Amino acid sequence: MKSISRNFLFIGLLSVAFFAIACPKRVSIAEINADPSRFSDRDVAVAGVVRDSWGLNIPGLLKGGAYKVDDGTGTIWVITDEVVPNRGAEIGVQGRIGSGVSIGGRNFGLGMMEKKRKFRRR
User: Fold this and answer.
1) What pTM, to 2 d.p., does this model score?
2) What's the burial of 97, exposed, middle or buried (CB within 10 Å: 0-12/13-18/19+)?
3) Helix, strand or coil, per DSSP, at residue 61
4) Which of 57, 70, 80, 92 is most buried by its number of CB atoms within 10 A?
5) What pLDDT digit, counting tens, does each position of 35-78 carry?
């Protein structure tokens, strides 16, 4: 009975460690802007409020664009292949940091390529 409990505990700890490693580190936008080379081509997570957006949203045909996230320490453009969120939305974003990020012929400079997002429920 003890060995079964130890096995479950070991499997549980291993699962937690695996998921913790797989999740990107949440950082402030000020940290990214202060040292972009440190985060270049790395996955990170940020959270904040959508302050601006630019999209290719044509229902049924095109979606994607960019939106600017403000976490109170700074702002960063996030490029997405999905529908662009509305201004004022509270959002958490995971993605890869890159410089010279562009979409639709518009250059956004330092930015993040979105991989996953979540909206804050009110």
Assistant:
1) 0.73
2) buried
3) coil
4) 80
5) 999 998 899 999 999 999 888 766 666 678 889 999 999 999 99
